[in-house]
Write a structure and sequence with these properties.
The protein has seven helices and eight strands, in the order βββαααβααββαβαβ. It has 231 residues and is α+β, with helices and mostly antiparallel strands. The strands form two sheets. The chain has a five-stranded mixed sheet, sandwiched between helices. Strands 1-2-3 form a three-stranded antiparallel sheet.
Length: 231
Amino acid sequence: MKKWRKKEICIIVAFIALTDIAALVQFFIIEVGSIKFYYFIIPSAVGAVFGTILVLTRHYYGKSKLADSFEKAAKTDFLTGTLNRFAFYELIKSEIERSKRKGRVFSLAMLDLDDFKVVNDRYGHQKGDDVLVSFCELVNSELRAVDRLNRWGGEEFMALLPETTVDEALVITERIRSKVGENCFGLKRAVTVSIGITQYRDNDTIESLVERVDSAVYDAKRLGKNRIEIR
């Protein structure tokens, strides 16, 4: 068995993202020159115990820049730097509660790059990753400071647009769709995106919002791609 040496391993730490059903445990093993990530899904009851440890650790090391950077890493997608799905769920939950208190609307947009498998197959996964990073940079440049972008999975992304009606969201996402179509991201083929948008309605849940915006993207794909549909 390999013996761990102090100069090789800097720190081992775990961060937790909780939902009502399960918790995501993200282990960071930081070695000299590299960071390795390991993920485990565990029942939320067990995750609550880890979560308590995390809160106590955060309290004790509250002024540590290293602790802050680890906490940020636990909430972001390691490739694109956008929010990960667990952090985004918490953000939507907070926005729903805020809308109920203050009577303000918000919109949700799902952006799905068209035929992305072709990019990976033809140019390789490294080039595909580069396209995803550049795509996120482009989208963020068109979003406002209050908006939040999330990597939902693979080549699917979600944007939370606070205090934004669906008509206003349409203007924002149409600008994004147009800019993406003008940018080949270093490829010898056009890159397009299908977008679905929906607006928060009374009694909406996270699940109903996601289901509706996902259906809108499905409609956009079915109707020819490179378009925006509203649900």
